[in-house]
Write a structure and sequence with these properties.
The protein has a single domain, classed as PCu(A)C copper chaperone (Immunoglobulin-like), CATH 2.60.40.1890. It is mainly β. About 13% of the residues have low confidence. Strands 1, 2, 3, 4, 5, 6, 7, 8, 9 and 10 form a ten-stranded mixed beta sheet that branches.
């Protein structure tokens, strides 16, 4: 019995260390732009740092019906915005999701977002081996105009 408990303890520790090593994606400076009544979309911004090469493949939030990664870019002297299906997060490099560049679009908002509110966001990253992991982030709502 004691041997079985030691083996179980070892497996739990090994699994925890494996998950910890895999999950080294840090989210910093997460914020969401506040909205006005009846507004159905807004942007979310943050800095992502991955210790291993991973790809951001999906984003979810209970505050919105859909969340997409978007990119703003100049095309023929016109600023365009388009959805990006995947966003590489290179190991050791900061990837900024910011106004005017890559950012998250929260669509089909379920209610207005007021300054000071917190919004939970789930980022799904995929490693080179195809394994996916959820990264939880909490973004603070900033006043409209920031």
């Amino acid at each position: 019995m004691r041997n079985a408990m030691q083996q179980l303890s070892f497996l739990i520790c090994a699994a925890a260390l494996s998950l910890q090593a895999w999950s080294q994606v840090k989210v910093t400076e997460a914020w969401v732009r506040g909205t006005v009544p009846a507004q159905k979309s807004t942007g979310a911004f943050m800095t992502l740092n991955a210790e291993r090469d991973v790809t951001l493949v999906e984003v979810r939030s209970e505050a919105a019906g859909r969340v997409e990664v978007h990119e703003m870019a100049m095309a023929n002297n016109v600023m365009t915005m388009s959805a990006v299906p995947k966003l590489p997060l290179p190991a050791g490099k900061s990837v900024e999701l910011k106004p005017g560049g890559y950012h998250l679009m929260m669509l089909e908002l379920k209610q207005p977002l007021k300054a000071g509110d917190s919004v939970a966001i789930t980022l799904v990253v995929e490693g080179r081996d195809g394994k996916r992991q959820d990264i939880q982030a909490v973004a603070t709502v900033r006043p409209l105009g920031q």
